[in-house]
Write a structure and sequence with these properties.
The chain is mainly α. The chain has 6 helices and no strands. The chain has helices at about 5-30, 35-60, 65-90, 105-130, 135-165, 170-190. Helix 1 packs antiparallel against helix 4, helix 1 packs parallel to helix 5 and helix 1 packs antiparallel against helix 6 (about 170-190). It is globular, with a radius of gyration of 17 Å.
Length: about 190
């Protein structure tokens, strides 16, 4: 590992990157009433894998795409989270309950949410390229921390879901939209 980033710094980066995936995992724990352990593992694996693969992709792209990614990453994450959150709220008002709006057991939803919550990790990978880091050590930590946090998030969501009732899809959709807004505002404020 390069001396520019110590283990604690990489763990801190990994934890920060995993927070959006954690929030989505909590939401899935809430809305999916009978989420089986294998499905929880699949969700955590996808989020962990994308959080690890995006920095790798950013690192590989290096400095050539840095300015392009910095200007669009927040808009892409915002748009994807807005669409998914909006669908979740929309489906919460349907007569027939359908958790298909953000049910991460659905492959397309899982893929979209994995990408949306890991876009920031792409930019982190670009910064790793500038630091001349050995990328494999940080991405293993990022993926592992995200995987564990997502399993914990799903468990927390399952516990909260039983306490809060049936209309939590609205709250979950709002959470996803707020995460998108947070990403957008943070990047816009950083440019000021």
């Amino acid at each position: 590992m390069d001396s520019h980033l110590d283990l604690l710094t990489i763990i801190g980066i990994a934890f920060a990157l995993s927070l959006d995936s954690f929030a989505v995992s909590v939401t899935n724990g809430i809305i999916i009433k009978k989420l089986q352990f294998f499905s929880a593992l699949k969700i955590a694996f996808f989020f962990g894998a994308f959080q690890a693969l995006m920095p790798l992709a950013g690192w590989a792209a290096g400095l050539t795409l840095k300015s392009y990614i910095q200007h669009l990453d927040h808009w892409i994450a915002f748009g994807l989270l807005l669409i998914i959150g909006g669908r979740m709220i929309f489906f919460s008002f349907q007569k027939e309950k359908s958790n298909g709006a953000v049910d991460c057991r659905n492959f397309s939803n899982l893929l979209m949410l994995s990408i949306a919550t890991s876009i920031d990790a792409l930019a982190v990978g670009l910064s790793f390229a500038m630091l001349d880091l050995n990328i494999f050590y940080p991405i293993a930590i990022i993926g592992g921390v995200t995987f564990v946090n997502c399993l914990i998030g799903i468990h927390i969501g399952k516990k909260i879901g039983h306490l809060l009732g049936n209309r939590l899809e609205i709250a979950g959709g709002a959470i996803l939209i707020l995460i998108g807004v947070k990403i957008l505002v943070e990047h816009l404020m950083a440019g000021i």
